[in-house]
Design brief:
about 220 residues; TetR/AcrR family transcriptional regulator C-terminal domain-containing protein; mainly alpha; Arc Repressor Mutant, subunit A; transcription regulation; 13 helices; Tetracycline Repressor, domain 2; flat; transcription
């Protein structure tokens, strides 16, 4: 009986993603998902005990779309594979992307992805005590950068960079005015993501080298 019930979970998660895509994350609830499926809210509680459990399952669903790293990849290639996989998933599901920053990664799919990152960082020589921190830094960068792109945080909004600077006298914005030529140039966000990821991998590599060198006498 339990197995029969579980067989509808993918359908429910599909409906949750559709509700969020069409009406926004704030509209995602047990009631709206049940309505989309033609169920009563009480029937949905037979599959998920609470909205929190449903949201955790949505996070797991997103992370399950990241393909596992192929065997034989080096640590840097593994990190890049996971980063671009997460970026692609996030771009496909922008409405629920904030969940990746607000919900803990507790599903089996999430555990597999995090474990692959842990293993890669260990191969890179990152001290074990620092591996969880470095993994959090990497995943937060990937999610945050992608969320900033799809949410409009990186955009001009109602003012382009020049108009923003014009709100204050130049002497109050010395940094902005010194960088004006660069701030007024359109940013290729994909290239910036690639450069940022490369810099983070270089940092990881430096941690590994420092560990291999050992303490200096």
């Amino acid at each position: 009986m339990r197995k029969l019930k579980d067989s509808r979970r993918p359908e429910i998660l599909d409906a949750a993603l559709a509700v969020a895509a069409e009406r926004g994350l704030d509209a995602l609830s047990m009631r709206t998902v049940a309505q989309r499926l033609g169920l009563t809210p009480m029937a949905l509680y037979g599959y998920f005990r609470s909205k929190d459990e449903l949201l955790d399952a949505v996070v797991g669903r997103l992370l399950s779309e990241i393909p596992a790293p192929p065997p034989g990849l080096g640590w840097r290639e593994t990190v890049e594979h996971l980063a671009y996989g997460l970026r692609e998933v996030a771009a496909r599901h922008p409405a629920v992307l904030p969940l990746l920053l607000t919900r803990p990664a507790i599903s089996p799919a999430a555990m597999r992805i995090v474990d692959a990152a842990y293993a890669a960082l260990l191969v890179a020589g990152v001290p074990p005590v620092q591996v969880p921190r470095v993994e959090r830094m990497l995943s937060t960068f990937v999610i945050g950068h992608t969320l900033s792109e799809v949410s409009g945080r990186f955009g001009d909004g109602t003012m382009d960079p020049a108009a923003r600077r014009a709100q204050l006298p130049p002497e109050e914005l010395p940094g902005h005015n010194a960088l004006a030529a660069h701030l007024d140039t359109a940013v290729p966000w994909g290239e910036e993501f690639r450069a940022d990821l490369r810099d983070l991998c270089d940092l990881i590599e430096s941690l590994g080298r420092a560990t291999a060198a050992g303490p200096r006498g």
